[in-house]
Amino acid sequence: MGWLVEALVALILLSLCLAITESAPESALVTNLPGFNGSFPSKHYAGYVAIDKERNKNLWYYFVESERNASTDPVVLWLNGGPGCSSMDGFVYEHGPFNFELTKTKAPRLHLNRHSWSKVSNIIYLDSPVGVGNSYSKDKSYYITNDTQTASDSYAFLIEWFKMFPEFQSNPFMRISKRKSNKDVTKPVINFKGYLVGNGVTDPVFDGNALVPFAHGIGLISSELFEETKAACKEQYYKSENTTNECSDLIQKVYDDVRLLNLYDILEPCYHDTSITTFDIGSLPPSFFMLGKTERPLPVRKRIFGRAWPLGAIVRPGFLPSWPQLLAGSSVSCIDDRVATAWLNDPAVRKEIHAKEKSEIGRWDLCTNQIHYTQIAGSMIEYHRNLTLSGYRALIFSGDHDMCVPFTGSEAWTKAMGYKVVDEWRPWMSNGQVAGFTQGYANNLTFLTIKGAGHTVPEYKPREALDFYSRFLAGEKM
Ligand SMILES: *[C@@H]1O[C@H](CO)[C@@H](O)[C@H](O)[C@H]1NC(C)=O
Ligand SMILES: *[C@@H]1O[C@H](CO)[C@@H](O)[C@H](O)[C@H]1NC(C)=O
Ligand SMILES: *[C@@H]1O[C@H](CO)[C@@H](O)[C@H](O)[C@H]1NC(C)=O
Ligand SMILES: *[C@@H]1O[C@H](CO)[C@@H](O)[C@H](O)[C@H]1NC(C)=O
Ligand SMILES: *[C@@H]1O[C@H](CO)[C@@H](O)[C@H](O)[C@H]1NC(C)=O
Ligand SMILES: *[C@@H]1O[C@H](CO)[C@@H](O)[C@H](O)[C@H]1NC(C)=O
To answer: Does this entry carry the keyword Oxidoreductase (predicted)?
Structure first.
């Protein structure tokens, strides 16, 4: 289940439901949010779920009921991954019910988001594992964690969550799995239907080989450098014991050409934040010290504070440091997560969303440095194979201007699964325009690009994102 913890991953859990949330815990209801003075389009809940008997592991969630039909729309679990990043990234910056506006007073103003994924689904934003976002443990030894632990904790959370919100598991579509539940009526049946992964790190070789062809195809390096690199590396750009010095030197040249770009969306501009003088600039790629400008009224971020994924992100086993860990305690003032950080650390907000006080569990960080994370799951490809062969629907989507996890890698590994092509590469449309390209495979595996989008697709292309999301949930053709 390592796919739960890829870099910026969306996992989807579809549970077709009936009956409104009458038995949902009243105490978890969110009725008011600082910065927003309208009425909520649907019910919101937030709070903690203790997943162990000792109540040592407390996972925090924010649940948004569907604005369409909560009783029939699917339930989706959203995980931002990282590892170590709060799923409130998705809530604040990507597809939550509000658009957050940064104001001069620093208290963000919230506007309803026309393209919220709660338009068509019930959605749980989960901070996982403990130590991330608002999730916590009194016992800090739980902050030493890994893929399997995180996955089993998230699963334990779901079981408990469905007990708290039983109306989301009692429905006619669940009858298929009723047989299981007859044995133990208190154990909820999770009617798992499928999942989506967006620009997810998947496999060391495929992702490791992705950058060079991406940089060439999209016009960032010369054809001469591309041909030279291709020949010297024998098309194997992933660093291995067979990598020659000539190949490494040429790959370095490719890196040098692209390093000033905004890694998460090569179309977005960058500027140098002059306040960054507190640590050694030479130790990190220059682009990490830059914030972008934008002409959009509610700006998208120009930096994402994540784990230390290098260019050509890898999923090698082992300890995965976060940027703050790399920087050994220096403040990272270049990161533009101001709106989320201001809002989620506001005591008035924390009270409304039922998060423990900062004095008790520490401040909210988009990506925490307090967990010590070991990657053990390796390549995700076999997980995808098992899941798709078990009948779960999968949508592998990719913002085609993300250089962190370039689409070339995702395109290659989905193809390498060897499934029959059932819907040959073609444009897909949104709002009467080409929104990207898609290729459909047997076993309900779909690969989809989003034209002009960066790493966090719904942040850059909210309308198109809601379109493909709705179609996927409804089982429609892209
Ligand atoms: C509250 O809503 C009113 C209109 O209903 C609007 O004029 C006002 O600016 C809003 N205030 C804030 C702080 O959003
Ligand atoms: C939601 O769907 C159920 C089942 O189809 C239906 O009975 C109910 O009227 C719907 N509610 C709304 C508000 O459309
Ligand atoms: C994963 O983490 C858990 C909790 O710390 C630990 O018990 C387990 O041994 C770890 N697994 C591996 C393979 O390291
Ligand atoms: C390195 O080359 C040898 C011989 O061609 C091959 O057997 C081995 O799999 C290669 N290693 C990697 C990591 O590609
Ligand atoms: C895939 O399924 C097979 C057969 O059930 C199992 O042996 C294997 O461990 C699974 N692989 C993964 C990565 O889950
Ligand atoms: C694909 O998904 C559809 C809708 O969920 C389902 O009816 C169909 O059987 C699936 N096809 C395969 C090959 O799993």
So the answer is: no
> Using one digit for the tens of pLDDT, what is the confidence trace for 302-313?
444 443 344 444
Ramachandran angles phi, psi of 56, nearest 5°: -90, -25
Residue of 3, 5, 148, 386 with the most ligand 5 atoms within 8 Å of its CB, for mutation: 386
- For 6-40, the pLDDT digits (tens) are 333 344 444 433 334 456 788 999 999 999 999 99
Which atom of ligand 6 is least distant from the CA of 194?
5
Q: Is 69 in the pocket of ligand 2 (CB under 6 A)?
A: yes
Q: Is the distance from CB of 405 to CB of 310 less than 8 angstroms?
A: no
Domain boundaries, the chain: 28-201+294-477
Entry pTM = 0.85
CA 231 from centre of chain: 35
Helical H segments across 109-244, by residue range? 147-164, 178-183, 204-208, 211-217, 223-233
Structure tokens at 242: 């067979």
CATH of domain 28-201+294-477: 3.40.50.1820
CA 121-126-132 angle, to 5 degrees, is 155
Could you tell me the distance, in angstroms and rounded to a whole number, from the CA of residue 390 to the centre of ligand 5? 11
